């Protein structure tokens, strides 16, 4: 496994692989890798001759008062994880390698980014779309792997690839959870013991929604209300949003008749956690 920090090095490696007719799988991450990330890497490993993982805490997608500076980082651990899975290249650029001194070009998206995390974190999707476009142009993979954990991001990137004709396929992978149901996240490391317990409220609220839907309930407003009631029982929790949206266009719905995304963002203490499930109607 090689770890490289320049765009030039990635380009040279990829060029050589292409001459050898290798297929390339790509997993973009912000590092501090856990089993959620590992599941994406394993999926890529199973489907491609070569796997590239990027580790880049992208300043452009953080708002002014967000956790860019404190975001957890551990390259030693991340390298060991990638090595064990059989990743071929880690791309670990600096912000200046990615953005240089002057940077004037952005990729942005309307509509799908208006609600949910796009509403709470207004600069995030512009940062995500821009950095992911750059990474796609640098790595030029056949497929890129994203987690359903960030469901709106998965929808946005899938749309961006279609709208801008990127020559690659996006593969969505299921959410990996802790044994008690908490979705794995690098940000879980911010939680103290009490907060860690309180954080289960996200999963509990989603389980309530899932049970209601499975028992035939289609009233999205009623389901949302039950979720909100559950979260309000937890003193350490503060709701950012609880939404039920159409999975195709990420717009709020009142009745669940089509595939729906049930998504929430909740502050546990100072830590903002997200989780969701997608109810597929074929
Ligand atoms: P991040 O490092 O948080 O930007 O995440 C990098 C990729 O890993 C994204 O596509 C995430 O959706 C995915 N990911 C993060 N947590 C999980 C999880 N618990 N299960 C599955 N995928 C995840």
TrEMBL record:
Keywords: ATP-binding, Cytoplasm, Ligase, Nucleotide-binding, Pantothenate biosynthesis. Its main location: cytoplasm. It holds the Pfam family Pantoate_ligase. It is found in: Cytoplasm. It comes from the Bacteria. GO terms for biological process: pantothenate biosynthetic process. Pathway: Cofactor biosynthesis; (R)-pantothenate biosynthesis; (R)-pantothenate from (R)-pantoate and beta-alanine: step 1/1. InterPro entries: Pantoate_ligase (IPR003721), Pantoate_ligase_C (IPR042176), Rossmann-like_a/b/a_fold (IPR014729). Gene3D superfamilies: HUPs, Pantoate-beta-alanine ligase, C-terminal domain. The keyword Nucleotide-binding applies. One of its GO terms (molecular function) is ATP binding. One of its GO terms (cellular component) is cytosol. The active site is at residue 37. Beta-alanine binds at residue 61. Its EC number is 6.3.2.1. ATP binds at residues 30-37, 147-150, 176, 184-187. It catalyses: (R)-pantoate + beta-alanine + ATP = (R)-pantothenate + AMP + diphosphate + H(+). It is an enzyme of class 6 (ligase). The reaction proceeds by a bi uni uni bi ping pong mechanism. PANTHER family: CYTIDYLATE KINASE/PANTOATE-BETA-ALANINE LIGASE (PTHR21299), PANTOATE--BETA-ALANINE LIGASE (PTHR21299:SF1). Belongs to the pantothenate synthetase family. HAMAP family: PanC. This is Pantothenate synthetase. It comes from Clostridium aminobutyricum.
């Amino acid at each position: 496994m090689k770890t490289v920090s320049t765009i030039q090095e990635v380009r040279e490696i990829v060029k050589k692989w292409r001459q050898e007719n290798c297929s390339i799988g790509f997993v973009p991450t912000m590092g501090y890798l856990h089993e959620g990330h590992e599941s994406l890497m394993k999926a890529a490993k199973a489907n491609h001759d070569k796997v590239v993982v990027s580790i880049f805490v992208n300043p452009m997608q953080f708002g002014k008062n967000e956790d860019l500076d404190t975001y957890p980082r551990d390259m030693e651990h991340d390298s060991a994880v990638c090595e064990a899975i059989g990743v071929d290249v880690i791309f670990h650029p600096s912000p200046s390698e990615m953005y240089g001194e002057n940077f004037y070009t952005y990729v942005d998206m309307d509509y799908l980014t208006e609600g949910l995390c796009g509403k709470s974190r207004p600069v995030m999707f512009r940062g995500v779309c821009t950095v992911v476009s750059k990474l796609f142009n640098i790595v030029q993979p056949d497929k890129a792997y994203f987690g359903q954990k960030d469901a709106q991001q998965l929808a946005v990137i899938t749309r961006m690839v279609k709208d801008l004709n990127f020559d690659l396929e996006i593969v969505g992978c299921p959410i990996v959870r802790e044994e008690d149901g908490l979705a794995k996240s690098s940000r879980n490391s911010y939680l103290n013991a009490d907060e860690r317990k309180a954080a289960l409220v996200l999963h509990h609220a989603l389980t309530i929604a899932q049970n209601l839907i499975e028992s035939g309930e289609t009233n999205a407003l009623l389901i949302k209300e039950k979720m909100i009631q559950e979260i309000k029982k937890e003193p350490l929790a503060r709701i950012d949003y609880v939404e039920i949206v159409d999975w195709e266009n990420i717009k709020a719905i009142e009745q669940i008749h089509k595939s729906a995304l049930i998504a929430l963002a909740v502050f546990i203490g100072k830590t903002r956690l997200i989780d969701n499930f997608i109810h597929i109607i074929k």
